[in-house]
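Re: Re: C-alpha cell formats

Sure, here are both.
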Amino acid sequence: MINNQTVIPALLSDKVVIVTGASRGLGAQIAQQMAAAGASVCVNYLKSKQAADQVVAEIEKAGGQAFAYQGDVTDLAQMQAMAAQVIERFGRIDVLVNNALPSYQFNPSADYTSIETVQWAHFSQQIDGIVRGAVNTVQAVLPQMKTQQMGKIINISTNLVYNPVVTYYDYTTAKSALIGLTRNLAAELGQYGIRVNLLAGGLLKTTDASKLTTEEVFDYIATTTPLRQATSVADFANSVLLMASDLGAAITGQSIAVDGGLTMP
C-alpha cells in the first residue's frame, strides 16, 4: 500500500517503466508511486510471485497500469525477454530502475563485516547480483532507448558507500561499483539522450531490511540529520520519481544521497 506519498499524477504520463526487485519493500513502493504518477510499470520479481501480483493488483485498483514479470537479473537472456515483453505490451521503455538485490542479512556481527573473516564468495554473490544484474538490464533496454533517442536509468545504492558505519564489505563494495558504472554509462549514453543517475539511500523507515530496527535507532538517526527525521520509503521513491521525470532532464552521471543530509558526498 502506498503511504505518505506526494506525487503529481501527470508527472510520468505516457511513460513506461521497469522496476527490478519490485515485489516488496522499496521496489514495490517505487513501482506503485511510478504508476500513481501516470506510468505503465513492469513489476519485475525473482521468486515472490504472490507479492508481485499484489503490487500489480494495488496499482490497477488505483487506476494504474502494470504487469508482473518473473526474471533473474543475473541472466541476460531473461532480461532481454523481459524488455521484449514490455515493448510488446506498451510500445516503448522510458525508465529503468535497477533496484534488485541479492538475498542479504544486515547483521553487524556477520562474517562479512570483518576483513579477517569475509570470504570472496560473499563478494562474488553481491557483485553478481548487483553489478552484473544492472549491466544485464541496461544491455537489455538499451536498443529500445537508443531507437527512441531518450531514456532514464536509475541505479539504487546505499549511503554506506559514503559512510560505512557498519563495514558490510561485500554489499558496500558491490554498491560502490554502481557509482563507477553509473558515471561510465552517463558518459557514453548521453549522446543518445539517455540520462543515468544513482540514488543512495540510508536506513529507510520502513522496509523488510529495517523492520527489526527499533524506534530508538530511528530516533537517533533523526537527531543526526539536518532535517531531523529518518527518510521514509515514500520519500525515497519520490526522489526516484524526480529522476525519472522530465524535471530531471539536465541531471546525469550523478551519485546523490537521499538520507536527509546524513551524508554529504
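Second one below.
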Amino acid sequence: MEFNHADLFEGLADTIGERTAVVCGQERRTYAELDAEANRLAHYLLGLGIRPGHHVGLHLYNSVEYVAGMLAALKIRAVPINVNYRYVESELLYLYRDSDIRALVYDVEFEPRVAAVFEEAPLLEHLVAAGGPPGIASAVPYASALERGSPERGFPERSGQDVYIIYTGGTTGMPKGAMWHVEDLFMGFGGGNPYGAPRATPQEVIDEAVKATPMVMAAASPLMHGAAQMAMFLTWWMGSTIVFTRKFEAGELWRAVERERANTISITGDAMARPMAEALANGDYDLSSLFVISSTGAILSGAVRDRLQELLPNVMIVDSFGSTESGYTASGVAGSSPEKGLRYQPNSVVKLAVLDEKNRPVEPGSGQLGTVARSGRVAFGYYNDPGKTAATFVTDEDGTRWLLTGDLATVEPDGTVNVLGRGSQCINTGGEKVFPEEVEAVLKGHPGVFDAVVTGVPDERWGSRVAAVIEPRPGVEVTSEELDAHCRTLLSGYKVPRTYAFVEEMLRSPAGKADYRWAREIAMKGCR
C-alpha cells in the first residue's frame, strides 16, 4: 500500500466497510458499497481503453456519482478532472481541450452545453450520463456503465507518484490545472492527521481510522472545487462520514447538518458564511451536534464571522490559509480579519516564507513586503502551461524550490505572516497600493450591504481608481454617499471607493470566489 488515495480508500473499505463513507441528499454509501461502485465504473472505463495517465472529466453537481467517478479514475491510475458546472459553452470547450479529457461523466442537467461542444474536443470519445436518460445518442447511462463493470478489484499496482490534477482559477483568466503527485497531495493537505504530524506509513492511516470514533463532517463547497475534494479525503482518513448537499443552499445545508448530526462544516469564506448566517437568523435548526466551522480558500471577513459567531456561540470558527497549489499552510491568529489585518501562524510541519523579488526570505519585523511562498510538498506545475509553471515555481540560490502563492505579505518578529492580499488584484492608485480584500471587508460591515467586490478601473489622473460593486441586502436601500461615509471612518482616504455600481446579484464561482473580470466590467459601466 502506498500513500495513494485509491490504495488508502481500499484499505478503509476492507477494515471499516460497514461505516457510512458519503451522504448526498437521500443517497448514502458505506465504504464497502462505494468501493464496489467505483470498481464497477473503473472496469467500465478500462474496457473503453482508458489507461494510466489518461484524463476523465467530471461535470456534475455534488453526488455519489461524482465521488465514485473520482475513485474509479484513481483506481486505474487515470486522472480525474473537475469541470466547473457554471461554464458556458466556450469555457467548457476550452477546458475539455486544455485538459485532454478522453471520457466524461456528466449530469444530464448540463447536456445541452455538453452536446454543443464535446465533438470539438479532439480526445473526448466517451460519455457517461448521470441523473437520467441521456439525449446524446453516444452517451451511456451511468447505471448501464455500472452493470458492465465488475465489483471486484484486480487493478494494476499504483504509485505515490501518480498524478492528480485540480483545475482552479478563472477569476482573472481561464482556469489552470494544478498538477500534484498523490503522495505530495496527501501530505500537503493534512497528511492524514489534521491535529499533528503526518502519518508515518499508509498502514498507520488505516489503523488510526479503525480506532477512531467516527465523526460526521459536512462540506458546503461543490466537489468541483479542490477544498471539497480535500475535505472528503481528510474525512475518510479519519474513518468518518462526509456529507454533501447537491448544490449549496444555506437552508438545505443546515437541514443536512441537523438530519445527519454533523460535527463539523467546511466552507469557503463570506460567500457561504453570509447566507448561512441569514438562514440561521430566519430559521429554526437543531445544531447541537455541531462544534466546528472551518473556512479556507476565500476571505472570511470580520463582520460576517462575528455575525455567524453570534448566532452559534458554542461553535468554534476556524480560518485557514492555503490554496489548491500549496495545500493547508497556516491558521488564522485569533482576532485577525481583513479589516484589522489578516494574520496567520504557519503550521509547524510546513516550510512557509515571505520572499523578496530575488526569492530571498524577508527579514522578520522589517516591514518589507514580499510574496508568500511554500516549499516541500506542493504541486509540481500547471498542465499544458509551461510559462505559468516557470513563473509560479521558482528555485532560489540555495537550490530550494518554492511555490509563489501570489499573496503579498510582511512577517512579524515572531514569524506571524500578515497577508495583505493577492498581488494580481492589488490596485495601484497614484502610487498607493490598495488591496481589494480589506476594502471589501469594510463594505460588508455596513448593515445595508449583502456582498461586495472591489476592483480597479482606469483613471486619467491616478492611473487606477478604486471601484466597488455592491449587492444590497434584500429590501434595503443603500446609497453611494452612505457607503462613502462608512468607509471613511475605517479606511485611509485613498482606499475609499470612488465609484459604486449596484447589482441585484453578485456573480461568484460555485465555491464563492469573486469574478473580478465581471466586476471590473460592471464597475466601468457604473450602472445600477
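The chain is about 30% helix and 25% strand. The mean pLDDT is 92.
- S.
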